Every structure is written in C-alpha cells, then in structure tokens.
Amino acid sequence: MPAQPSSPLTDLARAYGVATDYWDWKGNHVVVSDETIAAVLAALDIDTSTPDAVAKALADKQIEPWRRPLPRVVVLREGWTPWVPVHVSEGTEIAAELELEDGGRRPVPRVEHWIEPREIDGVRVAELTVELPGDLPLGYHRLVVRAGEGAHTAPVIVTPQRLELGESISKDRAWGLTTQLYAVRSARSWGIGDAADLAELGTWAARQGADFVLVNPVHAAEPIPTMEPSPYLPTSRRFVNPMYIRVEEVAEMGYLSAAEHQLIEWHSDDARRLNGLPQLDRDGSWQSKRAALRMLFRAEHTHRRTREFEEFCAREGQALVDFATWCAIAVDRGLPWQEWPPELRMPHSEAVTAERERLADEVEFQCWLQWIVQTQLADADQEMRAAGMRIGTIHDLAVGVHPDGADAWALGDVLAQGISVGAPPDDYNQLGQDWSQPPWRPDRLADSGYAPFRDMIRSLLRMAGGLRVDHIIGLFRLWWLPAGQSPTTGTYVRYDHEALIGILALEAQRAGAVIIGEDLGTVEDWVRSYLTERGILGTSILWFEREGDRPKPPETYRALCLASVTTHDLPPTAGYLQGEHIAVRHELGLLTRPLEEEIAEDDAQRESMLHALRERGLLKQTSTVEEQVDALHRFLTWSPSRLLGVSINDLVGDVRTINQPGTDEEYPNWRLPLADGDHQPLLLDDVMVSRRAKRLIRAVNQRDTR
C-alpha cells in the first residue's frame, strides 16, 4: 500500500478536489501516493516541489475568493435565492443588477451580512453580499456590480430544478434500437452507415413500434488518414464526422453536369465495394466521399442555399472557424499538430490567422461539410419523428477527446496537460483503463462560464430528441492518470456537478430532449439519487443487475432509466450467452484470474439468469440461444424502466464484441460491420426482412401478460 501523503499535501489536494484516498471495486481502502497527487496538482499549475511551495499554495487557495471581486460563475436552480459575495476595497459602495439573457435588467439588492475585512496583498478588502431574486427565468444571465468607478461581472446560469420527461414517455414506456451507425450499411451506403441509413432504419423501426434509435457518438474524427476508429476518441465533440454524409442527398447534386454525375458514380461504385469487406474501411470510404463532396462544394449554389450556409456559420461562430482551420492545416501539413511549427500550435496566433487566409478555400470547405452533415442528421431525426417516433435520434456524448485532435488544439487552455482520463480496475476491466484523453480543468471550465460545455451540448441536441452521456460520473469526478502511469496509480478529481448537470438539464429542457446518463461501474451511492432528483435517466444492463448471486427481479429496476440486455462493451446477447466475453479476454491476456475460475463464475451467473427465466415461465427447460435472447428481452419488459433499448446486433444474432476495453490494435474495436451469427456481413436491407428480427420485436412489443 502506498505511503500516507503528508498532511499539508493532503489538505492542498482536497482543497482542489483531488482525492487522497478511495475505495476500490473489491472494497479495499486505497491511499493515493504523494507522487500521483503532486503530478495531478502540477496539471492544475500548483507547485508542490518543496514544503514551502505546498504551504504557499495552500495559503493562496484559502484566500483566492478574496482576490476575486465576484465568483467565477454563479449556477443556481430556478427558485433559489443565493447570496453572492462581492469583494471590494474597504469603504467602497456597490450597486448590483442582472442583465438578463433576453435583454432585460433586474436590480439585485444588498444583504446585511457582516464579514470582518481582511488584508489581501496589502489592501484592506471587505466582503459585501447581494442576493439574487428567486423568480429569475431559466437561462444565461450576467451579474454586474458597479464598485466606485469600476464594474465587475460574473455569469449567472439559472437551471431547471428537474428535467421532466415528455407527457407521452412519462405515461407509457418507450422502446428503441441501439446501434453503431457506421456499422449499419445499406446497399446505397458508401462502405459506412450514414445519415440516410439512420433515417431509413428509424422510419422502419417506427413502423415496428419503436420510439428512438440510440447511436454511437458521431463526433468529428481526423480529416486525413488514418481515421481513429473509436467514436469515443474523437478529434472534437462539438463537431461531427462528415463521413456520415449521404452524398446523393446533397442538394447541389441537381446542378452537376452529366460528366460530373458520372464521376460521382465512379466514386460511389468504388466505395460500395467496401460493403462486402469483413472489416470497415473508414479511410477508403472517406477518400471517395471527400472527392465527390469536393465537386459538390464547387458546384453552383442557389441564393437560398448560400443564405442557409451563411446563417449556419454565423450561429456556430469562432468555434467553427477554429475547427475548420485546424482541419485545413491538418490536410495541408499532416498530423499530429504538436509537430507543426510552434507558431501554429496556438490557435489565435498571427501565424494561424495567416495560415487560415492562405488555406481559405479548404477552411470554407470544412465549414460547408459541417453544415451538410449536421443538416442531414437533423433531417434524419425529423423524419423519424414524422414516422411516429416520440423521441427520434438519441445521440451519444463521449467522455473526452483525442489528445492530438482539434479540441485539444483549440481548447487547450481549458484542458489539463500531462494527464489522461481513465478508470480504475473493476470486475470487467481488471487492469483498469487509460482512455488517452485530456480532461477538462475544473477551474478553467468555470472561468469560461462553462461555455465550451454548453455549446457542445447545444450542438448535439439540435440533431436529436435525446442525449446519452457516456460515463456521466465524469461530470462528478474523473479518474486522472499522470502521463506514463498505470491506470492503477491514478486518482479522482472532482467537478462542480451542480453546474454541469444543471447546464445539461437546461439545454435539454430547451430542446425538449431526454438525457440518459451511463452510470455503470464504480459509482458513489448518492450520485444515482442525485441524477434521479434532476430528472436524468440512468442505465441498467441486465447482466449487471444482481442481488448477491441472483439476478434482480425486473420489477425492482429503476423507473427512471434506460434498461437493456447488453451494451457495446459486452458481446451481443447471443455471444454473451456462449461465453464470447470470456474467450476474447482470455485470448488477449486481460484476465487476472485463472480461466477455469472465470468460466465457472460466468457459467453460474448465466445459469442463474436462465433459471430465473424458467421460473417466470419465459423459457422451457431446453431452449435455443435465439429463444434465450427473446426471453431475456421479454424479461426486461416487466421492468418499470421508462426506456428499453434493443441492440440491432441482437436482432440478427451477431455474436462479436463491438469493443473490447483494455485493447487497442489487439482486437478490431469499432471496425466490425453488422453481421449474423456466422460473422457474415449484413446490410440494413437484410435486417428489415429478417424473421429473427421480427420475432424479437414481437417479444418487446408484447404487453405485460404475466
């Protein structure tokens, strides 16, 4: 066990929300080493190199609020009347008001609350107090305090007490499909599932009674080869991968010449050959699409389309310009950006401005791609709702971004350097995980008024009726790993969850969307209660819902959650029933216990589940894997969970794990197309006529007839 950290270092760490100890997945108490604590604090620009440095840093932290005229940001729930401290020179008179989001103004009264003045940096500083009114509208406002001849400001964010489900969902459970969009290809796909495939899948599913399609993150990837296959390691979470564009549905197709149409046909023929490959070829698909889209970008544009594009660019603002600039420089100079000339590594330098002008055509092309792909995904969502879905698309928000990506370049000042996000060991990832992603810095995020977080959520919800937040526990605390360290030697760093969850609820309420938090793994007990209080759905995976050595009765599941049999980090249900997850982890050397012990425990767990199904009359004594898959989903329909997810892989009997945590190139993570039980690739067209799919859908659609 690591040595107990020194007391001053412990106090300093806790003052910055850095855990100095924790309880692991086996219930053991772990003390974090001094080395880890020092490395994490260094990423927050805290010097701990000597005892004097630690003492100074702790003293500075304690008086930090007194050095600020106003807090970094004030986040409150509607109806709350918080007191806000104002620090000014002793004897200074103040007057405060709120500038509301809609342009209105509200006076903010002083509160008589005496605090003894303190001497800060040689100046006597008084703490005065103002009280925000309890009837403020939801939204983003600004507190303005005039003190003497100067003025100080702070963002004020008013969030909902609770995000309420829509009336139809609150009264009647909804079920839907969960899928990796890139893997669901039709005969018209260019080797990769796209926005048109999503619309087609969703329209078909709506006719089967489904109310949503939950897809993998569609965040932007690298604009040049090699494209990162993991949708959970994007180059940007604010912007979208143009790989999902359906070329033929871009309006400018109608203005091409016959010769240009023929060229696009050649590109599409090349790309459609990729549909038959056993693994996905993102780079090959994008090479063909990019060439075709370049032609469409250069084609004639109507005034109406030009106006729509200009409005999109104005709405997305500087963030779009920065992202497009990064993409243009990457296309011109290659990646990683850390190898660009030093003056190009700073997004707002004069050199970058000059480079943007030199590459103006490519920058505009990248902006245009974002307009097209976001419009097509938003249209797909609307088509699904028009077909009868109550929710439509549910997009997925990844935990973080690639360290060599656009967000790491453009938002570097709000990301921690020399740190990676991961997870400590747990039952399914016994070596821990390193996700290779730089985390938000809690202090810098607050300094920005949470604008990057807000804009990211808002952008995704423009294309969806719901949002799944992967590892939502990361909005409470994240496992920080100092560079080069093992996942077992990290520690937790806390975030202002009241602010982050509040903003998430605010944006969702404005969009009329549902929010699902993936709250699996090591979770503090109070967190799930807090999420329920705020109206955020949790996640229940059948295999993880157990009471001792028995599966939980479905009637005891949480009501406010998305329940499903499986998830993308486990094999599809047919594969899980056949022990695919044990075989793969053994083959890759990811088990920490003997194989026989793992198999015995897995057999016992699986048999206990099948026994419960037999007890409930859902299975006969002898049954096929297909019958077991149907029975497991029928079992879930007896839960009170408001949402029920059905993996499209389960519709067709796929057995292969989509992603094996703890691996990179050792397993074809995120590269497998939809396939049947014999690993033969399937198209969306096959799914929609599958007898197996229709049988499982009937099981899910059945009402409670126990």
From TrEMBL:
<dbReference type="GO" id="GO:0004134">
    <property type="term" value="F:4-alpha-glucanotransferase activity"/>
</dbReference>
<dbReference type="InterPro" id="IPR017853">
    <property type="entry name" value="GH"/>
</dbReference>
<keyword id="KW-0119">Carbohydrate metabolism</keyword>
<keyword id="KW-0328">Glycosyltransferase</keyword>
<dbReference type="Pfam" id="PF21226">
    <property type="entry name" value="MalQ_N"/>
</dbReference>
<protein>
    <recommendedName>
        <fullName>4-alpha-glucanotransferase</fullName>
        <ecNumber>2.4.1.25</ecNumber>
    </recommendedName>
</protein>
<dbReference type="InterPro" id="IPR048458">
    <property type="entry name" value="MalQ_N"/>
</dbReference>
<comment type="similarity">
    <text>Belongs to the disproportionating enzyme family.</text>
</comment>
<feature type="domain" description="MalQ N-terminal beta-sandwich">
    <location>
        <begin position="70"/>
        <end position="160"/>
    </location>
</feature>
<dbReference type="InterPro" id="IPR003385">
    <property type="entry name" value="Glyco_hydro_77"/>
</dbReference>
<dbReference type="GO" id="GO:0005975">
    <property type="term" value="P:carbohydrate metabolic process"/>
</dbReference>
<keyword id="KW-0808">Transferase</keyword>
<dbReference type="Pfam" id="PF02446">
    <property type="entry name" value="Glyco_hydro_77"/>
</dbReference>
